[in-house]
Amino acid sequence: MKVANSLFPVVLAGVTLAVLLIAPQLGIGTARAQDRAYPTKAIKFTTSLAPGSSADGFARVVAEFLTQRLGQPVVVDPRPGAGGNLAAEIVAKAAPDGYTLLMSSLASNAINATYYSKLNYDLRRDFAPISKFGQIANGFFVGPDVPANTLGEFTALAKAAPGKYSCASAGVGGLLHLTCEMYKKAAGLQILHVPYKGAAFLPDVLSGRVTLVFDNIPVYIPLVKAGKIKILAVTTPRRSPVLPDVPTTAEAGLPELDSRGLFALLAPAGTPNEIVQLLNREVGAVLNDNALREKLAQQGIEPEASSPEALKDLIRAEIAKWARVIKEAGIRAE
């Protein structure tokens, strides 16, 4: 008996070591292998994204994969309204415990920081950056009857006929509107801005009533392939994997025309750093998962993680970028 008792601690230590050694091979990360104080209940992704949109689908796919890794439900809570300010304000005022997070449409939130003279939150002060989620390229779309097949050809048409052509958007001060203003400034054009409420502009672009629109590419891919709309360029530094034959605005000679749907995960300011770092690691693992990347690539969505520090820098850069566009175009909140 004395021999057995003396061997017990050694056996126990060996078993413990074995579990730690094989955990990675079994797909058990340290976040699973140990009891954790967080998370112990459902985590909520509060978003301003319209249910059913490509960006909303992006959030839901990431939430599904993250649920599997964290062992707790990650649910998407859409709160569209006020140009993205409603969702942001909810999270800014939430308890900093890691259970209410903002899946941010980063470009829209960055625009709002300048477009609105007064907000009930500060994008730089009231949030703890966790990780970039990725991006969705914007495309330059025109109706099928527009006599141009490249961005250069359309720019020449617009220069030759100032004020003849029009650009649709989902409303004054939104990303689509400011991208149009960015194009006008970069190319030296006079194009009429036609604001709509939401995505109601699409039938008018298809029919030619409005000439062009800048928008996230996923919903347009079937229309492009069916010949119902033309895409002249993508407004990103590199080509979209889902439309590899479409040149970038930089290739067309307008490198300053850089606009994309950017997405990121933010927590309320004051969230403990250990929670921020845990979420950063887990989100990074999810976004590098091959199954997720393949699933999203088919939709024109490009997942990309970042450090909290890099995201903080990106937020500041986006605010400065869109502030310049708003100032140069003389845009004021309605």
Description:
The protein is of the alpha/beta class and 334 residues long. The chain has two domains: 30-135 and 261-329, 3-Layer(aba) Sandwich (D-Maltodextrin-Binding Protein, domain 2), CATH 3.40.190.150; 137-234, Periplasmic binding protein-like II (D-Maltodextrin-Binding Protein, domain 2, 3-Layer(aba) Sandwich). It has twelve helices and ten strands. Strands 1, 2, 3, 4, 5, 6, 7, 8, 9 and 10 form a ten-stranded mixed beta sheet that branches. Helix 3 (54-70) links the parallel strand 1 and strand 2. Helix 3 crosses helix 10, helix 5 (106-115) packs across helix 12 (308-329) and helix 7 (175-187) crosses helix 12 (308-329).
Which SSEs are present, and which pair or pack?
Elements: H1 2-22, H2 30-33, E1 43-47, H3 54-70, E2 74-78, H4 85-92, E3 100-105, H5 106-115, E4 127-142, H6 151-160, E5 166-169, H7 175-187, E6 192-195, H8 202-207, E7 212-216, H9 221-225, E8 230-234, E9 260-268, H10 273-287, H11 290-297, E10 301-303, H12 308-329
Parallel strand pairs: 1-2, 1-3, 5-6, 5-7
Antiparallel strand pairs: 3-9, 4-7, 4-8, 4-9, 4-10
Helix pairs in contact: 3-10, 5-12, 7-12
What is the makeup of the main sheet? 10 strands, mixed
Count of folded domains: 2
CATH class of the largest domain: Alpha Beta
Share of residues in strands: 15-25%
| Rg, alpha carbons | 24 Å
- How much is the average pLDDT? 89
> How do the helices and strands follow one another from N- to C-terminus?
HHEHEHEHEHEHEHEHEEHHEH
Tell the overall outline: globular
The number of distinct β-strands equals: 10
Oligomer: single chain
Low-confidence stretches: 1-34
- CATH homologous superfamily descriptor of the largest domain: Bordetella uptake gene, domain 1
CATH architecture of the largest domain: 3-Layer(aba) Sandwich
- Helical fraction equals 40-55%
